[in-house]
Amino acid sequence: MTQHVSPPRDGTSKAAPVDTRPAWKNLTAGADVRTLSLLGVLAVLVLIGGITQPDSFLDTRNLQLVLTQASVIGVVTVGMTFVIMSGGIDLSVGAIVALSSVWATTVATQDFGFAGILFTAVVVGVGCGLVNGVLIAYGTMVPFIATLAMLASARGLALQITDGRTQVVTVPGVLDLAERDSYVLGIPPLVLVFAAVTVIGWLVLNRTTFGRRTVAVGGNPEAARLAGIDVRRQRLYIYLLSGLCCGIAAFLLIALAGSGQNTNGNLYELDAIAAAIIGGTLLSGGRGTIIGSVLGVLIFTTITNIFALNNLQTDVQQIAKGAIIVAAVLVQRRTASTH
Amino acid sequence: MTKLTSRRGLLFGAAAVSAGAVLTGCTSNDPDDGGDKAADTQPAADDKPGKQVTIGYAGPQADHGWLNAVNDQAQNRAKKYSDVSLEVTEGSNDTAQQIGQIETLINKKVDVLVILPADGKALTQIGLKAMRAGIPVVNLDRIFNSPQAYRCWVGGDNYGMGLNAAHYIGEKLKDKPDAKVIELAGIDNLELTQQRTQGFDDGLKNYPNIKKVARQAAEFTVESGQSKMAQLLQAQSSFDALWNHDDDQGVGALRAIEQAGRDDFLMVGGAGALSAFQAIKADSGVLKATVLYPPTMAASAIDLARALGQGKGVSGLAEFEIPSTVTCYSAVVDKENVDQYMSTGFK
Asked: How, if at all, do strands B241-244 and B266-271 pair?
């Protein structure tokens, strides 16, 4: 996944082994079709929800609920999208969220109030991202292994800090963020943060050199190096960015759940990767969109919401979720290839 | 968390019931009706110092508040006895590592072993090995696959938790026509969750006016409790009672209830966390009671191990030997009796 990058192996194109044009340019058209097909999937889900539970599903409160539930994993997925687009993978996101959330909710940190919690959550996230980045970019470790190691250590450290206990947050300013009273024009503050991260992520990916370099590194690192891009530094920045997103997500989670626990962020890595892939991000790198990933998150959250409102049990939920993932990918691939 | 097999549970259910019957029988006996006979030949263990006993204690990694409490209960109980020295291994969730730790204890020739396996089925062999080496094993909570692997099993009653939660809710709602109840379960992949739900459903059958309208499974975590509870509240615009399997995920559930601004129902928790006890005592929110999965079972395991090591029975029972099975009662803790249990609450 680092040194040798094969050409994109999706159903859409049999590209020449070395495509010297920047990958983002000839794929923007295809991305629009993918985005539309994802919106179609989401529309079908909304239809199913509306038919099965017209009262509780089609309700402002439910919209607020779904968006709030999507916020934490959504922020993580934006960071993950950058990582996967650069040809890497970050298995440590869930563990980093856990570590950030417990470090930021120790009694000592809570003494510093709102700012202390926010600062600690973000710094711990960035710190873990830095370690990942250095190991991968300069230690030339395979991302899978480096972030797997981080997963293990961060979870272990989180356990050591908490001793397995639930750290309840008592700082009112943080708790208020997830209360009804603080909604801005009916929008929960958590959702506003999610929206801001999405917009910034989109701008960075599509309107900055950083974004173009990310795509280039993921599409063909050798070509990127020849084009004068410092591939290693770019990789370091990308894992830093993922860590930053985890730190922000941890802060949102602290506000939402009102506590820090070493079990937080359980299996976020799989949820974030799945959302990005459903959203059209290529696992081998070089292609993907922020909008697609966010739609992927919303599709997952809506599915979970519809399941819960219809009181489906875990066994049925898991079977149906698997089927829907396959269906969503097939629909998307079909629309993309007919384009 | 905790785990025990239902088949084994059934098998030993009868034994547990009879042990319970003996216990209740004994407490109502007059002291001078011959019940003291055991004391003549083989004395029951009491607080008086007896023969020195070395107890080896091997538990899993305390990655959950309940397990922390279990380890603390065991160690504090051992400190209480001047004739007990406790050899504690570093907790591990790794089967191979825990087997190694227990082998070390066997080689050290401790008198009795108290084992809370990370995985009961996987550690059966080491239980058998200890028993064959002549070291009696007290199996704590997560049960071994074979009764030959332990001398005594002491653990909690998941089915009873559900049953007692249902009875408490049933009595509160019995005069309310068409009462609605919802259930926030734990990890569905665990057998204990199925047992708790089964007990809850069976208990509710005694109250024909009550219907369980929804059930969702969380993951014993605050995060999942908040998430699943928020969805349940959205799905059910009105209901009368909620049973939540686990007080840890209950922290999240209470957060969701607060965020939704709901207070039109009563909530019963599970396990017995300190935060739940405090909320019950304050009586300011929806949480009115919690059903125990008592961590004090670890202290009882030390008591049993000490009695075993000294070759005594249990005081209050007529038996010469300690029982082979002890199933702890899942008591309901509400405002009336919360003070009594406060010190056992775990963080």
From this structure: parallel
CB A247 within 8 A of CB A125: yes
Q: How many domains does chain A have?
A: 1
Q: How confident is the model at residue B317 (pLDDT cuts 50, 70, 90)?
A: confident
Sheet with strand B53-58: strands edge to edge: B84-88, B53-58, B112-115, B137-140, B152-155, B325-327
Residue A141 inside a domain? The answer is: yes
| Interface predicted TM-score (ipTM) | 0.84
Q: Provide the CATH number for the domain around residue A33.
A: 1.10.3470
The answer to whether the Cβ–Cβ distance between B234 and A56 falls below 8 Å is yes
**pLDDT score recorded for residue B21:** 46
CATH class held by domain B158-292: alpha beta
Report pLDDT digits (tens) over A228-250: 999 999 999 999 999 999 999 99
The CA-to-CA distance between both ends of chain A, in Å, stands at 29
**Contact residues, chain A to chain B, C-beta under 8 Å:** 53, 55-56, 59, 61-62, 65, 68-69, 159, 163-166, 168, 178-180, 253, 256-259, 261-266, 304-305, 308-311, 313-315
Tokens 């007896």 correspond to B50
CATH of domain B6-156+295-328: 3.40.50.2300
Residue type at A224 in one-letter notation: A
